[in-house]
Structure prediction request, 301 residues.
Amino acid sequence: MHYDLIDLRLFVAIAEARNLTRGAERVHLAPSSASHRIRALETSIGASLFAREARGVTLTRAGEALLRHAREVFARLEQMHADLAPFAQGVRGHVSLWANTHATHSFLPDDLSRFLRRSPQVSVSLEERTSPEIAMAVARGEVEVGVMADDAEGVDVELIPYRADRLVLIAPLAHPLAGVASASFAQLLDYPFVMLHAGSAIHTFTMNAAAALGRHVDVRIQVRSFEAVCRMVAAGVGVGMVPRSAVTAGMAGPPLAMVALAEGWARRDLKVCIRRRAGLSRFAADLVACLAEGDGVPAGG
Prediction:
């Protein structure tokens, strides 16, 4: 196949405008030139992309497929430009960091802010992933640094203590579980849940923990932050399972009952995950050193 980015931009413009002339205007091409390019693109692909109608054009099945992929191409190009822009502005280093939901929403914002103030020449890309994904990606060399909660058994990585925390049940003060000292995860499953959004690491963990018991989670609502979980629980929407640090971080709003979870996995000591200290880039080593300054600090007592 032979085509270029101009052809793809033209195709997307026509598809969105549903009109060849207006689409051509968007990319500053004459209608005759646009028509020639589209015909050449269809010949190269071997399929018609548009059905011509009296008032414009509509996409064929092939056109719908190409539009989906073309939009993904341009989204990736924009991300590439965003990733490269800091280098043009004098940034000399970059570190890829993967972290689980817990670390991303609790400790990392402050710690990364401190690191970036110290190292203005460095940029960091942060992605939220589950702990097993983080361990495997670090072991394969896909990312230099991870922050995770599991022990990475069977994966050849080095783990450095980062922060101590644990998952707890939160519930409205009038909830039946509010007065107990501790509760099992199975007891929580008898009640509707407020959870972080699907795709978050803690969402995946919770669903897997329920499946291991042969149970399902009654998800009443999904939100985007631990703060929102706490507020929804306080409003009586359901119960939640969050890190203790998320409850004790000076949250405003109605008080919550906080109940210990009986499961051993409720202890969520976070660890920095790397392949080998000796193999880190200077910038990644500086980041690890910054994160390790919080070594073993308990959250919320």
User: Anything to note?
Assistant: The first strand starts at residue 50 and ends at 53.
